[in-house]
Write a structure and sequence with these properties.
The protein is an all-alpha fold. The chain is 53% helix and 0% strand.
């Protein structure tokens, strides 16, 4: 995401484009993104608790 910032910001951001999708596809994308982020959070919290 750095290309959208004038400084070094943007390393922990992402951009979603959904202007040409129908509502069903947007909802499916949000479901998939939620599942992915939930797995990432779980993995990170599991790896942090073992150390």
């Amino acid at each position: 995401m750095r290309q959208f910032y004038l400084d070094q910001a943007g390393d922990h951001h992402f951009r979603l484009s959904c202007s040409y999708l129908d509502p069903e596809r947007i909802e499916e994308g949000v479901r998939r993104l939620t599942a992915f982020l939930s797995e990432e959070v779980e993995c990170r919290s599991d790896s942090g608790s073992s150390g």
